[in-house]
Amino acid sequence: MNKKPVIGISMSMLSDTNGVFAKYPRAYVNDDYIRSVNENGGIALTLPICEDEENLEYYTDIIDGLILSGGHDINPHLYSEEIHPKTGDIFPRRDTFDMVLLKKMLEKNKPVFGICRGFQLINVAFGGSLVQDLDELGKNHIKHWQDQDCAMPVHKINFKGENFFTELYGKETFTNSWHHQVLKDVAEGFEVCGRTSDGVIEAIEDKKRNIIAVQWHPEMMSINDKDAQNLFKKFIQNINKGV
Amino acid sequence: MNKKPVIGISMSMLSDTNGVFAKYPRAYVNDDYIRSVNENGGIALTLPICEDEENLEYYTDIIDGLILSGGHDINPHLYSEEIHPKTGDIFPRRDTFDMVLLKKMLEKNKPVFGICRGFQLINVAFGGSLVQDLDELGKNHIKHWQDQDCAMPVHKINFKGENFFTELYGKETFTNSWHHQVLKDVAEGFEVCGRTSDGVIEAIEDKKRNIIAVQWHPEMMSINDKDAQNLFKKFIQNINKGV
Amino acid sequence: MNKKPVIGISMSMLSDTNGVFAKYPRAYVNDDYIRSVNENGGIALTLPICEDEENLEYYTDIIDGLILSGGHDINPHLYSEEIHPKTGDIFPRRDTFDMVLLKKMLEKNKPVFGICRGFQLINVAFGGSLVQDLDELGKNHIKHWQDQDCAMPVHKINFKGENFFTELYGKETFTNSWHHQVLKDVAEGFEVCGRTSDGVIEAIEDKKRNIIAVQWHPEMMSINDKDAQNLFKKFIQNINKGV
Amino acid sequence: MNKKPVIGISMSMLSDTNGVFAKYPRAYVNDDYIRSVNENGGIALTLPICEDEENLEYYTDIIDGLILSGGHDINPHLYSEEIHPKTGDIFPRRDTFDMVLLKKMLEKNKPVFGICRGFQLINVAFGGSLVQDLDELGKNHIKHWQDQDCAMPVHKINFKGENFFTELYGKETFTNSWHHQVLKDVAEGFEVCGRTSDGVIEAIEDKKRNIIAVQWHPEMMSINDKDAQNLFKKFIQNINKGV
Amino acid sequence: MNKKPVIGISMSMLSDTNGVFAKYPRAYVNDDYIRSVNENGGIALTLPICEDEENLEYYTDIIDGLILSGGHDINPHLYSEEIHPKTGDIFPRRDTFDMVLLKKMLEKNKPVFGICRGFQLINVAFGGSLVQDLDELGKNHIKHWQDQDCAMPVHKINFKGENFFTELYGKETFTNSWHHQVLKDVAEGFEVCGRTSDGVIEAIEDKKRNIIAVQWHPEMMSINDKDAQNLFKKFIQNINKGV
Amino acid sequence: MNKKPVIGISMSMLSDTNGVFAKYPRAYVNDDYIRSVNENGGIALTLPICEDEENLEYYTDIIDGLILSGGHDINPHLYSEEIHPKTGDIFPRRDTFDMVLLKKMLEKNKPVFGICRGFQLINVAFGGSLVQDLDELGKNHIKHWQDQDCAMPVHKINFKGENFFTELYGKETFTNSWHHQVLKDVAEGFEVCGRTSDGVIEAIEDKKRNIIAVQWHPEMMSINDKDAQNLFKKFIQNINKGV
Amino acid sequence: MNKKPVIGISMSMLSDTNGVFAKYPRAYVNDDYIRSVNENGGIALTLPICEDEENLEYYTDIIDGLILSGGHDINPHLYSEEIHPKTGDIFPRRDTFDMVLLKKMLEKNKPVFGICRGFQLINVAFGGSLVQDLDELGKNHIKHWQDQDCAMPVHKINFKGENFFTELYGKETFTNSWHHQVLKDVAEGFEVCGRTSDGVIEAIEDKKRNIIAVQWHPEMMSINDKDAQNLFKKFIQNINKGV
Amino acid sequence: MNKKPVIGISMSMLSDTNGVFAKYPRAYVNDDYIRSVNENGGIALTLPICEDEENLEYYTDIIDGLILSGGHDINPHLYSEEIHPKTGDIFPRRDTFDMVLLKKMLEKNKPVFGICRGFQLINVAFGGSLVQDLDELGKNHIKHWQDQDCAMPVHKINFKGENFFTELYGKETFTNSWHHQVLKDVAEGFEVCGRTSDGVIEAIEDKKRNIIAVQWHPEMMSINDKDAQNLFKKFIQNINKGV
């Protein structure tokens, strides 16, 4: 096969906060996801939230790999917790959409790459859980919501083991950070590949299920960061190689 | 073929106006387009702006019909005018993307449905021109920017001739209105099918090229308006019938 | 009969413009209407917009008089015009509600008092029409949108004839002013009782139909203005007297 | 009796926060209360805040049941506490109005349904007290101010005993949550029917006094939630049945 | 007499536009008036708006001279015109206060100095009139609302005749400009002393009544402008000299 | 003497927070102070901040009593503390002005009435100190910043002893509350007359120095509260009586 | 000489519009000027506004060329006009600073490059004049204030003659547009080199005085536009060549 | 040498937070730095951030002394810490620029004066570290972010030892305060010269390296504060004296 792999990107919704179109739903995904796929060997295809079985089957048929994108907090009911006061906006319809896509990709033996919310959703989908807010861990942690220049690396990730990430990065890389929730119980079958210095889990892999996932936002960094570009390249090349 | 037709929807970009993500590009299209396709017989597939020939070829291969969505003003240079002070934001990259999609659909003999900006772009693509702002026509016109409740019908469209619209609606329908530019010279090959009482062109068809287009926003009305729903149904059913 | 007359007041809707309750509908009417009725001899009963025939019948059964309150522009389609660019927000559901109330009151021979929008709606309901924006009359008019201190009188009304208003005020009163549309064709059966110096119609009466209506906002002025208080007193006393 | 029961809904006040009408009082109640009554078997009648004995007598004469609606915090002086720094806006005039309505309904043997503030007011009116802010209970509670999509269920209520709620729901229902104060001492005569998992009291009943009350907002959920619709249906049907 | 003259300064009112103190009245006058008096030979005494005859008598007894300060537009009814749509906020209570002060100063043979609104009020008080907005004179005028750096001179005033201003300035001075209304008919007894190049009247004097008045804001300029300082000095010295 | 006493009111400064006049100083005092004096037997005279010895001497010569008004926090250096992070805006120039006025009134044997900041300034002027923020006392206090309807009483003051306040109120009154700092060490010579239930000092008197002072804002309440009106009446009548 | 030429860039001032630093002056120049010089062969040196003769002499001694940057409108008094109502903010101190720099460069025989305001200032400095607002020329002009994406070309410039611009561009280039004033009378000695299609002068040169100037903003375009980069390159290379 | 010393001032960047120029980089430095140099014996030269070795060499060649100005937090990675959640915006490009300037000045034996961020950067550059937020030291500290009137002194600095500061000030001076980070480990070779009463280090000197630095903002105070003026004077005079 000589065409580029088609990479589906799960979409979200946003709305204006005021004016005549306040609350009017707009299907969207940050353009960086699309750019990151198109510049690193794939064809980006954005997948809008829907419930039609025929659509969902069709979407997962035509794509060769799936990126689960960032955004809303996962509904804590999905990991058997009540909603903590610091949990932000949830979006149950999106949770379901993402989980159905994930399940169908697994059934069809196609690889999945989770980013931020995608990373958290994958963990929850397979039985893991989340810390609903970093402050629940006490105050001795580093800054995980950088709140400036989204492409700027602000912390180091330390990798270990033999996995997708140590193959790619060796022992470390520097990344951005934009999250307030973190992994608590890691879902069965997943290897913890990377952590920040304060112990936050930042990268996991499940080789059998053909899933990788990261807590940071490589799609924001790929504009000028080789390490971030290589993450997309390797994910896409593995598809071509039939990995 | 018994699967539902796949309808590509051209996407746009938006950005936050302030905060840390001000100007950060987000690929989007109003969810109403997706809903209108999914609820009326099609499978919606959103197509993000890109320039890669392989992507563009792929997108137009997998879709059975194309909706060119609303939004930015067309760059007046495309109809050989300088930019008028009242022309709003233009987006040359999007103009090119939409025109390439349109050209490829034509080559592949697949139908196209233009909405608002899509309606204007089709006219310009085939040699027509636009009035850059309604006020250039003098002050004796009705309200074409309703600025409230996007689904509310605010004016009547009068149809004539034998075409897609008179087949569907007979002599008239009531629609919403959200535009400040209007068609001036109509591109060769297109039939003017509908106008408002102040003479503004609201619906055109080119049967040979398999294109219909409307100035209003049926996707906003289809939430509760039969006439708007039927417009999508007929466009999609025609694909199934091989029209 | 020794109980106070019950005066129904037609309600409107408003919404927050931003935040989590943006667009959330709240049934409301300015408290000044309620205060003006309660302080001048009546029992105020606020009537929320609805379509149920049983509700509408019930509402008009229990009230002795009706005040049609101020607010939205009337849908110009109701007087056979297209919407002018300067017409503001319209609210067709409210137009219908108000007209049904008006019709039922007429059938039940009970008096009606229109204020601002209510004044305009009454004129349209019986076949009259409106100027969609004062500027359509040219620029030689006085200020009709005072935009400060809602209770402050800003212009004089000159009355003539023998009617409710000349009985009450003689030749003149001073009033506030908060409108951008004015009466054009006066509905059959109505007497023009008062005008401002620039000719704008400010007060009408139809003795047979038992209707009075004013363009200004006496309910805002009644907080400290005798003339405004007396307008409510006289309307309510007439009910007691069986006028 | 074959007409629908008339359900009074206690109103509140709101104001613009800026502009020429800042602080101008508008009598209002969320339209969802009206819709919930009208769609589930009743005739909604909105009752504006007032002090006139004749009005209050009249209002409670014409209605068959009363809904005490949500909104302001109760003045803590009413349960013999000073105002805590986290107590929000209070509205003593409204407290009095609601309490008089409640008392008159009790005297006239007509049923009352309290929602959120209404739930809290009923408890206080009969001698109960409130926790002035959830944080006073420590930090181990779930999210009770959901701050997004007002109709979305965010927590479970567990019911027990034999009462209105277990008849209706059996052991549980899922509800929204919009409050920062909770019941402390429950007023004599009331049965605690439902609680959330963190022990917050969410539903009470006093069969003798013919009162039910809930901490959540069923009127916001009834747009698309059967359980919420049934709550209104059962309250209204009981009136018809003379319960 | 060896004490400094006491100069009364008429005060105005302002309010917050939002927040909990929106519309809360605050008595104020720009500190520049006070500074200009105190730095140029006088003792500033600010006079709050009131209606008590005893207060008004007392205020005009203790002061040796009066400055009528800038601000609101004069109520056009005071010069027998209806309110023009471009007239800004009026403040009838302040108009009355200023006029009573002016009348009492005249009776007590004490000098008055009008600034901007004070200049316009003096003209109206003695029978003159105003152009309600500069645009009523057509578009061929210079900028009279400078809208930046309030102390910056933006136009020249040309003086002529033998009066307070030619004594002080000779033929010209350069001043700031902050007004949208201008003198139309000049009140009897006043000499037009200065104009801008587009003919707008900027300075008047009535020697018999002991009144000077200017359209510009010397109190804003006196922070660093000799000409503006001298205007206050001369007004105050004349009092000492018994002029 | 049969004229009303003249009551000086110390002024403050405020500024716009944006626009062309941002930071432009405006001398002001809330009109409620003026109204409270004028309606309760005095002639209000507002005293603008200045440093000229002649002005200060003049001001304290012509007034019969002084009200030190509310506003800025006192510079903690005046009671030998460094500035705490929760201390708000300070205004050293105003501190000096107020203290000079206070000192001159004392020398001239004229009575002084301190309100809120005035209450705190008096305590500091005579050697007392302040708690820089209520939170420094721990969290067990009631709400002292009511943040709604400035005239609404929100807590009780308990009085004891034989002093101005027990003469006026007996054992208690209900007041509003708008402060975040409270008295710590009370200056020598002052009697603590009233406290709230959480022990905050709310009223002091020094009979020898002829000073009373309160922590609340009676001038805001006097619009409709007898107790507040009587506070001004008694202060002013005492002057007439030569108390 | 083998070091890069040093290019002085005249600075401006800006301020925050609100907050504690509102109006606080910050010396600034858009970084694009600096980047455009540094990337195209020069060393950028920013010159802050000042009046010291020694500074000004020093600045013009150490630089090899000067760029007069964009920003404020020129004070119309400099070309003997009064200020038109549509003239925006002026900054006389900056006018003087720029003119002194210009004069000293001329005396020292060093080249000057004017951009936008710099272009207008040069024209005025040598006796030319400006149209104070484009609308004064009637409405038949194209859009000269693009108000989106500052680097996007929006109109064509047509060049003629033999000069710096025709050497560089031949007959045309496409540029951005960000101005509301235009050249009226061209100063003696300057050749008009380029115009837009509506006749607006966009480029001038005076070979003897060694000055070029353009109405558009090449420094904004040089981020990705060859033509804009070449404009800086040629200006800087000419210095090296001793042109 | 009889010319004034040339003092380089390191620049920063700022951007609009919304509108069409949101995020557009503007090179800037507060004008107070420039004014403080120009008024106290130097010639101010502003140095824009760049990376070109030739520029950096040139800048440090032409200046006689360097002021490292205030602003962004230092990247904690430079003192081997991860970023604390309360660290504000960092600007790595600026850190590098400032450090290169500092290093080159040292090599060229020219004096450096660090202010606020400059003070912190110097400490870090030579091996010291910072407390990332004052709150990390507990709550017992005074106000170090004054947040009003930037020139107002708010705390005392106590000096000791024999150094630049005790020579200038003796034992103390009063300064403003605008920082949230403070020195932790002081870099080798630096003497701690001054502290506030809560122990925060406010002034350091390294005589060998010819560096002084202060935590406060003397450039803001120099507008009217002798002590602040003298700090600049002494720094500049020392250059003339060859200190």
Word description of this protein:
Eight copies of one chain form a homooctamer. Chain A has 243 residues and is of the alpha/beta class. The first copy, chain A, has helices spanning 31-39, 53-62, 92-107, 117-125, 164-169, 218-221, 226-240, and strands spanning 6-10, 12-14, 26-30, 43-47, 65-68, 112-115, 130-131, 155-159, 172-175, 182-183, 191-195, 201-206, 211-214. In chain A, the strands form three sheets. Chain A has a nine-stranded mixed β-sheet with strand order 4-1-5-6-13-12-11-8-9, sandwiched between helices. In chain A, strand 5 (65-68), helix 3 (92-107) and strand 6 form a beta-alpha-beta unit. In chain A, helix 2 (53-62) packs across helix 3 (92-107). The model of chain A has no long low-confidence stretch (mean pLDDT 96).
* Spatial order of strands in the largest sheet of chain A: 4-1-5-6-13-12-11-8-9
Q: Roughly what percent helix of chain A?
A: 25-40%
Structural class of chain A: alpha/beta
Number of strands of chain A: 13
pLDDT below 50 for ≥5 consecutive residues: which ranges of chain A?
A: none
Strand content of chain A: 15-25%
Compact overview of the structure:
The structure is a homooctamer of 243-residue chains. By secondary structure, chain A is α/β, with parallel strands linked by helices.
